[in-house]
Amino acid sequence: MTNQNVVVPEAMPTITVAAVANSPSLLPYPPPRSGGASAAAAIRKKYLSPVELNGGWANGWVESMKASSPTHAKAAAALAPALEYEQKELSAWTMRYPSALGKFEQIMSSTVGKQIVMFLDYDGTLSPIVDDPDSAFMTDAMRAAVKEVARYFPTAIVSGRCRSKVFDFVKLSGLYYAGSHGMDIKVPKKTKYTKKKRAVLFQPASEFLPMINEVHKALLEKTKSFEGAKVENNKFCVSVHFRCVVEESWKELVDEVLSVLKEYPKLRMTQGRKVLEIRPTIKWDKGKALEFLLESLGFANCKDVVPVYIGDDRTDEDAFKVLRDRGQGFGILVSKFPKETNAAYSLREPAEVMEFLLRLVEWKRSLSLKACTRAFL
Ligand SMILES: [Mg+2]
């Protein structure tokens, strides 16, 4: 079995107050770029941030408004070299991490005769990233796609959210749910793949529950003066969302969070997409959760299994790395921008994730159909 309940206390939270201002771990993922790329990023932020925040539908409007505005047209001309640099950077990155849709046939041809197991992150993968984390709903179409995938392949949702919350979003039974970054796993009683007498709960950080509740209360108090800050109790971790906090206040907010953490050396802070995560210093992450789930499914030492993990955030890198180290399966990073990653492929956004899932189902059905046809010949 996977080593469980390994507690590795760390002397202090992983990010110190002094390091806050310049720490790459506190800057947006991807890390800032230097020179022209950095300028390009700043330019993009200045002119395109409404598009990024509101989704693709706004793109046409903003571009159309720019085109019809002489000021914007001039600005666009002045910015052309920086944007061109960024485009080249993106092209080079896409060569390294090609689109899982573009390489679909090639990917699938390597899985014939093997068992695919699907691992899906939730926020930013199945649902869009939105200002209010409580409103990160997945579409009915995405839910239908995940349901179809789960008909053909063992499927797990691996999220930083607490397990009950992510289940409330996904609303599909028969799946495996790993909440709190894998620190709260439920293996259902009976599925196509496992037949257990009762559902199995695996919670390697259960001893931290009282501490997490205490810290949650303290953080609510400390952050209440920050407009837009949202503290979420995810059972075995606490998230401090700062997506709606003005950038000028980020440093002060981090200082307040760290001032709480000073009292809790057994907790550490990490950063996701516009969120600070406070969690126990146990050696457990989404990568360990992936291994645990594979083991629960009976695939621990199986050579003919292809785990596919799709995620968009730093915390998903632990799972990508496990797959890379095992030399088995592959990670797919969901991102529109170049990022350092251990994934093998990329998809740009949840809409492409859905397309990939639907193609996977279609591919599986066509394989089954071919097998049936052969059997009757
Ligand atoms: Mg995510």
Automatic annotation (TrEMBL):
Pfam families given in the database record: Trehalose_PPase (PF02358)
CDD domains, alphabetized: HAD_TPP
Pathway: Glycan biosynthesis; trehalose biosynthesis
Top-level EC class: hydrolase
Superkingdom of origin: Eukaryota
SUPFAM superfamilies linked: HAD-like
Role: Removes the phosphate from trehalose 6-phosphate to produce free trehalose.
Name under which the protein is recorded: Trehalose 6-phosphate phosphatase
Provenance organism: Canna indica
Lineage: Eukaryota, Viridiplantae, Streptophyta, Embryophyta, Tracheophyta
